[in-house]
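Hi everyone,

Forwarding the result from last night's run.
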Amino acid sequence: MINLIQKYFKKDRSNKSAVRENFSQYFYGLPEHQWIKEQGCKAHFDEFFLHLPVGLIEAMMSTHPLTFVPSQSMKGQRAVGQVLTNTIVIFPEFQKLLQSPKKAAVAYLAHELGFILYELESAKADPLMAEVGADKFVCDIGLADELEQLLLMLDETIEKRLRLTYLTINHFAGLES
């Protein structure tokens, strides 16, 4: 399986806190993200950004801009056939999660970003393998426990069980390293 995060690590000695601060101003300054502050979700996004390598944050400001939009704001605004590249649509059940104090919310955000990165790398990937690849990304940035909490909250499906199995495998593989 492709290691999505590896290409975003840099060996430079630039001021990483300045990059993070610039990204924060950029991200929260976008009109599409005003709902994040208004609905009290900012703390989860801030925590999520702390887990990302600076190279990925820089890519999110330039080559792979990313927006998070609530599903309600999409009603009537999309033309038929319009593609939402690098847009994560947040459905009501996940908006509730983001408004809660549950740490699984950070894993949700990381999974959605991982899914987009996986799609960018492997355009015709099997949908279930894309989910597993996104889960691996979440583990790679240090959110395995939060991902487990998120998966356990989901409805019982074969997909959920498979993702939990892969999570367990990734966790134990990481312990051996």
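The two ends are 17 Å apart (CA to CA).

Cheers,
N.
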